[in-house]
Amino acid sequence: MRIVPHCGACMQPLKSSQHAILDDANGLIHKNCAGGRMIKDQGTVDELIDRHPKWLGDLRKYYPKRNFKLIK
Predict the structure, then answer these.
(1) Where are the beta strands (DSSP E) in 1-72?
(2) Along the 72 residues of the chain, how does pLDDT read in single tens digits?
(3) Are 34 and 23 within 8 A, CB to CB?
């Protein structure tokens, strides 16, 4: 069984490049699903995980960093 992190409001999967917010309960929600919630921070899911490792660090295993190298 594979765990897929999802939006706390609409329950749809969160993708690493999607714009999301970190709400007052330290949950990730799609930016469009925020409604009237208190927003602590916003950005892509990847950016939020990097900026808030204390709360979201465990999610990194579901969204591994991609280190691309340019080949000339």
Answers:
(1) 19-23, 28-30, 39-44
(2) 567 789 989 999 999 889 999 999 889 999 999 888 899 999 999 999 899 988 888 888 888 776 555 555
(3) yes
For residue 45, with 0-12 CB atoms within 10 Å meaning exposed, 13-18 middle and 19 or more buried, which class applies? buried
| Count of CB atoms situated within 10 Å of the CB of 21 | 23
Residue bearing tokens 């925020």: 34
Q: In the structure encoding, which two tokens stand for residue 49, read together?
A: 């995980």
Single-letter code of the amino acid located at 54:
K
Q: Residue 67: is it exposed, middle or buried by C-beta count within 10 angstroms (0-12/13-18/19+)?
A: exposed
